[in-house]
Request: fold
Amino acid sequence: MSGIVVCVHPRAAEEGAKILEAGGNAFDAAVATAFVQMIVTPFSCGIGGMVSAHVLSRAHDAHVIVDGCLRAGSRVTPDMWVADYRGEGEFNGESLFDDFRSTMGYTSICTPGAVAALGEVQRRFCTMPWDALLQPAIRIARQGFAVPPSVAPGGPEQPEPYKPSREARLGATPDCAALYLRPDDAPFTQEDIMQNPAYAATLEQLGERGPREFYDGELGDRIGADLEQNGAFVTREDLAAYHPVTYAPRAAAYRGYTVYSNGAPGGGPLLLQALNVLAGFDLTALGHGSPAYFAHVGSTLQLVNQDRRDYLGDPDFLSVSPESALLSPERTARLRAAVAAGTVGGFAPPQEHGDTTHLTVVDGDGNIACITHSNGNYSGVITPGTGFVYNNGMNRFDPRPGRASSFAPRKARLHLMMPAIATRDGRPAAAWGAPGGNAILSALVQAFTNVVDFGMTATEAVTAPRIHAEGAMLWSDARMRTDTCDALRARGFTVEQSPLSYPSRFALCQLVTIAPDGTLDGGSDPRGQGAAIVA
Reply:
């Protein structure tokens, strides 16, 4: 076995597996897979978005996070939007404005970090040239690919207050409208084939000139001029000043495992905090699926999500380190006592349903690449002739000054990506991550505890019935027993049960487990359309 690739799109997983079969390592396969995902799921991720890459390289004796966070442009000011702020949207967590300024169009764009982060991964850890790793994505963009569900939605759109329609967002710029909207208003279907030659040409330019071309080169000049001329807060100088951040992962212990993830402003501290709390309970004895089990997990998720709102943000702009606040023994003890006492959250904040994707790659030498990348949602902006859609990262800043995620020039945007790797006795044991906004935390906590506490395989762990919980709310899938729902309501939870057995809103976990003898087992969440492909 050369390795395994698990991700949310089968074609991307296939191309990554081909890289492994051609002799590439996990990082070669991951970079190639990531760029293919940018083509076949163009709203979920792209070169106009962000990356959080979790890398464990046996050959380099390195275990690092390479973060290409979105950063606010230098033109922002702390109070620039506070007078027009309408609050947070239901089920998406976006800041709300009458004119959609944080959600679509040029004013919604942050400085992208995806190319810088993937370029750093390639420079430090890959064995294949940068331009070779972009070739699968270039080929697919030119030859064509099946129209993704985000372009060919399966049903009528449900309007939400202060949220632009799909047509409005896709029509935000002429190039986006020309690519994703038909002149006759006829909808695309998933039987249609889509091509994106402009994106292919942009990737060819990046392949020939290197990743800094996006920031320092002729492409960066075109991007910067377009953003500046159309009212974005990002300037040409912001692009030139952008560099990814590389640092050691944060860690927590859980039942003999050491779990690692990214740091703030990413969501890793939330995952580690939740596992710290749950480590104090015997989940196995509670029984998977029992009311007591879901009550302990649900209360933990509610309390951790409250801490997210209070503490998580760019540590360079905060007086209190988010990680010191979230991961202190004192905080763990307080939350654990609250869970033991049956505490239920007191309010119901909205969920974020971001457009994000994830890939997990493990090769035969034990190298691991666990990468989550995202456009936030998507802005509907395409710089003429480039073919890619920018992020709308401004939607997750809090327009009110003095908060953990308030605006500041070049401040990193809070994000809930939390690619994770676990080791046991010093050997890699699992790697996992997911797209899914606020629900990423719920998916990653339950998938891992399913493996550790209940002995599930990778596929069983990502398939098992799952909950998501924030505030007083607890969301479940249709497979939860009705008497379990009633028992949770009796404990004070407000339970909302989906009519679907595998609702995609619960995040799409992509998990690989690694046995002590090196045997790999992959599971791609059935709530999506992904795949685990062995090379």
Q: What stands out?
A: Residues 347-353 have pLDDT under 50 and may be disordered. The first strand starts at residue 3 and ends at 7.
